Amino acid sequence: MTDIQAKTYTAALSGQDILGRARTGTGKTIAFLLPAIERLLRLPDYYNNISSQVGIVVISPTRELATQIGNEAEKLLTFHTDLSNTQVVFGGTKTSRDISRLNHQLPTVLVATPGRFK
User: Fold this and answer.
1) Which residue from 38, 25, 80, 87 is spatially nearest to 60, judged by alpha carbons?
2) Are 106 and 54 in contact (CB under 8 A)?
3) Residue 58 near residue 69, CB atoms below 8 Å
4) Residues 42-61: pLDDT tens digits?
5) Distance in angstroms (rounded) separating the CA atoms of residues 74 and 84
6) Cys-Cys link to 63, which of 4, 39, 48, 90 (CB 3.0-4.6 A)?
């Protein structure tokens, strides 16, 4: 576990707000994704309604970062076959494609830029 992950994991897992700052490549994405997924796995109500709700929403300021976060989320979800997938949505792409995918299957993790999320 990296320093940022060790310092934030317990607070994030318990549902507390966290604010962290660290250099590129230090594991910030995993620092918030891993406890969010673990917290989701502990919610029995999520499993009862897994097909009718998004489990985790991540808002990213840029398309590039949204894509990176989505890739990391996909890697983490490969260890949890009972959870569905990750969907990344951002401006500059066809809204109809995003809506179609959401209508087909709601993702466990939805990563979006602010403009596309609204």
Assistant:
1) 87
2) yes
3) yes
4) 888 877 777 788 999 999 99
5) 9
6) 90
